[in-house]
């Protein structure tokens, strides 16, 4: 299994000149995600996806002995699709802005996900997110209820023929370690409460 960290975004919603994944919460945000994947011992290889939007993030990732793939940085979906076409493996995809992610929740996700599914996205309920004072724009309806994407998916890329028509499965995990994406200044301020 490959651990894949998406780390090439512009972070425009942060309204800051500093690259978002280098913001400090005890250490740069991206290092929390790298350490969670490394310490889980679930992966043969860890790859981070960067772009021209994140040159300093690229540098710190490389300094931490993680392989780096460069994409155009057009947007998350385009960059992810580009990388998935290059990989033929079972892949744990995570965004690089989940600083509460740790090795235990990574192991739980890997152990719980059905490997026969092509694409499993980890979601939380909107009520759980609200209980943590979090807002999200990535709302999907599943089993008659609203859920929110966490930025984590398990993808069996060797079963994908066409990325336009992939059936998505959902795994609900209401856990703060998977739901606090740092997208805005408000999210970063909330991080200090955990």
Explain what the structure shows.
This protein is an alpha/beta fold. Helix content is 30%, strand content 27%. The chain has one domain: Spore Coat Polysaccharide Biosynthesis Protein SpsA, Chain A (Alpha-Beta Complex). It has helices at residues 29-40, 55-63, 76-86, 103-112, 126-131, 176-179, 185-191, and strands spanning 2-6, 24-25, 27-28, 45-50, 67-70, 90-95, 119-125, 139-142, 145-156, 168-172. Strands 1, 4, 5, 6, 7, 8, 9 and 10 form an 8-stranded mixed sheet that branches. A two-stranded antiparallel ribbon has the order 2-3. β2 (24-25) and β3 (27-28) form a beta hairpin. The longest helix is centred in the N-terminal third of the chain and has 12 residues, at 29-40. The protein is globular.
Layout of strands and helices, then pairs:
Layout: E1 2-6, E2 24-25, E3 27-28, H1 29-40, E4 45-50, H2 55-63, E5 67-70, H3 76-86, E6 90-95, H4 103-112, E7 119-125, H5 126-131, E8 139-142, E9 145-156, E10 168-172, H6 176-179, H7 185-191
Parallel strand pairs: 1-4, 1-6, 4-5, 7-10
Antiparallel strand pairs: 2-3, 6-9, 7-9, 8-9
Helix pairs in contact: 1-4
How many domains, as an integer? 1
The gross shape turns out to be globular
From the N-terminal CA to the C-terminal CA, the straight-line distance is 30 Å
Helix content: 25-40%
Average residue pLDDT = 88
Question: What is the fold named in CATH at topology level?
Answer: Spore Coat Polysaccharide Biosynthesis Protein SpsA, Chain A
Looking at this structure, what is the CATH superfamily?
A: Spore Coat Polysaccharide Biosynthesis Protein SpsA, Chain A
Question: Which ranges are low-confidence, i.e. pLDDT below 50, for 5 or more consecutive residues?
Answer: none
* Structure class: alpha/beta
CATH class: Alpha Beta
Separate helix tally: 7
**Amount of beta strand:** 25-35%
Largest sheet: 8 strands, mixed
What is the chain-wise order of helices and strands?
EEEHEHEHEHEHEEEHH
* Secondary-structure arrangement, i.e. CATH architecture: Alpha-Beta Complex
Task: State Rg.
Answer: 16 Å
- DSSP, total strands: 10
């Amino acid at each position: 299994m490959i651990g894949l960290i998406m780390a090439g975004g512009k972070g425009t919603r942060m309204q800051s000149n500093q690259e978002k994944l280098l913001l400090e919460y005890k250490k740069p945000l991206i290092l929390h995600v790298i350490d969670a994947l490394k310490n889980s011992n679930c992966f043969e290889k860890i790859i981070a996806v960067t772009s021209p939007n994140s040159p300093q993030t690229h540098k710190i990732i490389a300094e931490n002995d993680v392989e780096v793939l460069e994409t155009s940085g057009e947007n998350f979906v385009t960059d992810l699709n580009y990388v998935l076409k290059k990989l033929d493996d079972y892949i744990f995809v995570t965004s690089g802005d989940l600083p509460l992610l740790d090795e235990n929740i990574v192991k739980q996700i890997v152990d719980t996900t059905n490997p026969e599914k092509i694409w499993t996205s980890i979601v939380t309920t909107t009520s759980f997110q609200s209980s943590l004072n979090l807002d999200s724009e990535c709302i999907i309806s599943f089993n008659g209820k609203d859920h929110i994407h966490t930025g984590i998916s398990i993808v069996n890329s060797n079963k994908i023929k066409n990325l336009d028509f992939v059936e998505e499965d959902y795994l609900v995990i209401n856990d703060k370690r998977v739901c606090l994406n740092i997208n805005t200044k408000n999210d970063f301020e909330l991080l200090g409460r955990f």
